From TrEMBL:
InterPro entries, A to Z: MoaB/Mog-like_dom_sf, MoaB/Mog_dom, MoeA-like, MoeA_C_domain_IV, MoeA_C_domain_IV_sf, MoeA_linker/N, MoeA_linker/N_sf
Major enzyme class: transferase
Organism of origin: Nakamurella flavida
Metabolic or biological pathway, per its Swiss-Prot or TrEMBL entry: Cofactor biosynthesis; molybdopterin biosynthesis
Protein name per its UniProtKB record: Molybdopterin molybdenumtransferase
Domain named MoaB/Mog: residues: 183-322
Length: 405
């Protein structure tokens, strides 16, 4: 039997680092920046007001020591105004949040510190009751980012704030490590597409939807092929036509047909075609396969839904993330006490579904060890990892826990 580490090494050797490509911002989330992002403009691009109110020259407010000061309003400056004139001495300009500061203006007076203005809006007069010091509530040009500065460095994972700053700097696209395209093909004559009626002995096909979501969650691009019955020629034909229709894929991920039954379609089809099948010392997820089919990496996951998911977490997710340049490829891990006892098979690393109580700092086993217990998996938010040489843990003993999404 292979150890988990041995099989993980076989899987990760299938991939090489993906190249850098340019993608629109709406496709960048979850990927990794492939090159430094250097600002070509200042942010903010111009000095602007942080408050709605009036802007004045400091010299025109010296009278405030004796009481309110009333000034004529010489212009109105909404956000987006592009023809702002210099502020005439002895006047105020009405100004809105985000609007450009007129030349000569030094003080921003929030509207709450005025009478709100008299006469035509943005004209007439304004009575100023008090004022902040010059410069307060003014957002300086380049105060956030200066043109020429490296805002994001190569290798940064891209999330909403990184996309936000790229857009703010005027970038419509980002250089990213290309996401891996993963073809997902489930096998099983008993399978029925969700949304259709179930016959006797049939079950709904759930692995491809689950694995597609897992691939997307890891930053990859899933391509789901229509699942196939346990028939070798049908399986091989489906694989090549789906890969061709997708315009080539970086990985073929199958589920089912890899254990010891009489109709192990994946094993039968791929054994002499470059895929090696092995038992891995883990539970669930013992039957595994990995290799290449005509040069394309192939990973064959067991069909039991929980086995499929756990195998993805243990082998596929870290390998995909590493190839796409993610700095962190593993799940966050903690070591916390168990709320109850736990048994584990000797000689196998057990990945047990669990619920982590972050407030209490404890972990609770969630359902039994059976690899068909998808309902329990769906209620779990963590996995307890029990080492191969541990067969029992008591309540209160610490366990290593992976925190899932
Ligand atoms: N004699 C032995 N039998 C089994 C062994 C063994 O070592 N000796 N290993 C068991 C273990 S452990 C696992 S895990 C499974 C793996 O089986 P396969 O990968 O060949 O998967 P199937 O037999 O096709 O299916 C297993 C199970 O999962 C259901 N399934 C499969 N695909 C899907 C899908 N896409 N969506 C939903 N459910 C699916 C299927 O109906 C079966 O119930 O083998 C054990 N047997
Ligand atoms: O490897 Mo299987 O997943 O134990 O049921």
């Amino acid at each position: 039997m292979r150890t988990v580490e041995e099989h993980a090494a076989v899987v990760s050797a299938l991939f090489s680092p993906t190249p850098t490509v340019s993608v629109p911002l709406d496709r960048a989330r979850g990927l990794v920046l492939g090159a430094d992002l250097v600002a070509t403009i200042d942010l903010p691009p111009f000095a602007n007001s942080a408050m709605d109110g009036y802007t004045v020259r400091a010299a025109d407010l010296t009278g405030l020591v004796d009481g309110p000061v009333t000034l004529p309003v010489s212009q109105d400056i909404p956000a987006g105004r592009t023809d702002t004139a210099p502020l005439a001495p002895g006047t105020a300009a009405r100004i809105m949040t985000g609007a450009p500061m007129p030349d000569g203006a030094e003080v921003i007076v929030q509207v709450e510190r005025t009478d709100g203005g008299q006469g035509e809006p943005g004209a007439g007069t304004v009575r100023i009751d008090s004022a902040p010091a010059p410069g307060v509530h003014i957002r300086g040009r380049g105060e956030d980012v200066l043109a020429g500065a490296t805002v994001l460095t190569r290798g940064t994972p891209i999330g909403p704030p990184q996309i936000g700053v790229a857009a703010a700097l005027g970038f419509a696209e980002l250089p990213v490590r290309r996401p891996l395209r993963v073809l997902i093909l489930s096998t099983g004559t008993e399978l029925v597409e969700p949304g259709h009626d179930l016959g006797p002995g049939q079950i709904y096909e759930s692995n491809s939807a689950m694995l597609a979501a897992a691939v997307a969650g890891a930053g990859g691009e899933p391509v789901v092929a229509r699942f196939v019955a346990d028939d070798v020629p049908t399986f091989l034909a489906a694989l090549s036509s789906a890969a061709e229709a997708a315009g080539g894929v970086d990985l073929i991920l199958t589920s089912g047909g890899v254990s010891a039954g009489a109709f192990e379609v994946v094993k039968d089809a791929l054994t002499d075609r470059g895929v090696e099948f092995a038992k891995v010392a883990m539970q669930p997820g013992m039957p595994q396969g990995a290799g290449r089919l005509d040069g394309t990496p192939v990973i064959t996951l067991p069909g039991n839904p929980v086995s499929s998911y756990v195998s993805f977490e243990v082998f596929v997710r870290p390998a995909l993330r590493a190839a796409m340049g993610q700095p962190v490829i593993t799940r966050p891990m903690v070591s916390v006490p168990l709320t109850g006892p736990l048994d584990s098979p000797a000689g196998r690393r057990q990945f047990r579904r669990a619920h982590l109580d972050a407030a209490a700092g404890t972990v609770t086993v969630w359902g039994g060890p059976g690899s068909h217990l998808l309902g329990w998996l769906a209620g779990a938010d963590a996995m307890i990892v029990v080492p191969e040489d541990v067969t029992h843990l008591d309540a209160g003993e610490h366990a290593e826990v992976w925190i899932l999404d």
